[in-house]
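Dear H.,

Thanks for agreeing to be a second pair of eyes. The structure we're designing against is below in token form, covering all 310 positions.
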């Protein structure tokens, strides 16, 4: 059999890099598979001001690079590649990474969750410049301005309510006339004086990529076909995230939306397999909580292997 790694870590965001740092310092020589989104969601973030230790803030890609360099200093190995298949039914675990097969005694899944986007070219060009999927990360930058939230579920209501702390007005835009949000969350948003609602409405374009800032949204009413521009300084996506866990379908427990379910913070139902970060955290989804759970997973791997070698 080919080389068997002590631990393979899937994902290279805050959770994956932290797990790599701790397992590397334990001399476990971790292999980190960077995944289809190297760096995770922080790689799409400009200024990060809520990660402890950086009083002036730090650029998201720089924070990720710092973490990678720190883990690499202690011997963590990094490999580009996307996991396309997995067999967790027997040990060592087997991973299909593109056309390569990799074996692991233990596995840390830190593959994150991808934000759902509208799919507009202007949207992708403005991520980090007024387009965001994280109100708690970026809301502060739009204090005193009018901003928009897209969506009709609890996530959208939570984002809109949170953003009223900063914005002069929040316009919630939803493509239907009915909401998926829970009654209590919807009523809370509807009663808030700063939140307006635009129903049966979709975003057709976002201005202005050339200026590297959001200045307005081009909207269309689905019932009347009326098209108009709504001035705004930011657009926050509240249409959910997609956990990057599909490759483990049927082998690990998930909730109704595909997030990996864990016990004792990071344990999956398969001994030796741990999950951390946004792939199993649908509640907090912060860089610091992802890093913390990456630390937990690494410590659990260390204890698991110690018991086995016992």
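And this is the sequence the design step returned. I haven't edited it by hand at all.
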């Amino acid at each position: 059999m080919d080389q068997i790694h002590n631990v393979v870590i899937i994902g290279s965001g805050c959770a994956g890099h932290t797990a790599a740092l701790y397992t590397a310092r334990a001399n476990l020589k971790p292999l980190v598979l960077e995944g289809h989104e190297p760096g995770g969601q922080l790689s799409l973030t400009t200024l990060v001001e809520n990660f402890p230790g950086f009083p002036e803030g730090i650029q998201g890609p720089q924070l990720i690079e710092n973490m990678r360099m720190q883990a690499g200093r202690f011997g963590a190995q990094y490999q580009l590649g996307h996991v396309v298949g997995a067999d967790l039914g027997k040990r060592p675990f087997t991973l299909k990474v593109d056309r390569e097969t990799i074996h692991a005694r233990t596995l840390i899944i830190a593959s994150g969750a991808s934000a759902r986007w509208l799919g507009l070219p202007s949207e992708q060009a403005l991520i980090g410049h007024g387009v965001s999927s994280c109100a708690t990360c970026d809301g502060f930058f739009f204090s005193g301005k009018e901003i928009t939230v897209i969506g009709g579920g609890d996530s959208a209501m939570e984002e809109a309510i949170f953003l009223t702390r900063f914005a002069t007005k929040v316009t919630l835009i939803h493509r239907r006339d009915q909401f998926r949000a829970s009654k209590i969350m919807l009523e809370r948003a509807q009663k808030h004086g700063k939140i307006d609602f635009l129903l049966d409405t979709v975003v057709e374009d976002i201005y202005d990529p050339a200026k590297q800032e959001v200045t307005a949204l081009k909207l269309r009413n689905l019932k009347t076909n009326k098209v108009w521009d709504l001035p705004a300084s930011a657009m926050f996506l509240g249409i959910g995230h997609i956990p990057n866990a599909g490759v483990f379908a049927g082998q690990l427990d998930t909730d109704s939306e595909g997030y990996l379910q864990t016990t004792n913070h990071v344990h999956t139902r398969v001994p030796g397999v741990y999950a951390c970060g946004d792939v199993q955290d649908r509640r907090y989804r912060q860089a610091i909580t992802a890093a913390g759970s990456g630390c937990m997973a690494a410590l659990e791997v260390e204890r698991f292997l110690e018991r086995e070698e016992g």
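Two observations from my side: The chain has a mean pLDDT of 93. The chain is about 25% helix and 25% strand.

Warmly,
E.
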